[in-house]
Amino acid sequence: MVTMHDSAKRKNGKVRVTFAMPAIEGCGCLYLVGRFNEWNESVYRMQCADDGTWSLTLELEPGCDYQYRFRTLDGTWLNDPTVLPTPRPFVSENSFVSTLAVTASPV
Fold it and tell me: For residue 80, which of 64, 96, 61, 60 has the smallest C-alpha distance?
């Protein structure tokens, strides 16, 4: 699940976006990987809540499209179950979030 937070008062003009995943049986570590980190598989380690759900909040540029996936420590790739995947030629399907509708307010 992806949640965009109100960015109208952010001085840096970026959009706060929270990425979340439901509990995954046997998963002790989950990473968020995507266009926003050049698909680096170990930069954004997600936080696990007491109920086993995973989340991470990033500040992203407004007016952009971002493809992303989740990766477990053992290398298993997962899509966001709440977002329709975006097919790409010759590559597995990625989840997709857009900040195109979000505009930065002047500071």
Answer: 96
Domain coordinates in residue numbering, the chain: 2-98
The Cα–Cα gap between 32 and 55 comes to: 9
Are 44 and 84 in contact, with CB atoms under 8 Å apart?
no
pTM of structure: 0.78
CATH superfamily, with its number, for domain 2-98? Immunoglobulins (2.60.40.10)
Which pLDDT does position 105 carry in this prediction? 42
Torsion of CA 54, 58, 62, 67, to 10 degrees: -50
CB-facing half-sphere around the CA of 20: CA atoms within 13 A: 13
Residue with tokens 């992203």: 60
Q: Evaluate the CA torsion angle 87, 82, 80, 31 in order and state its sign.
A: positive
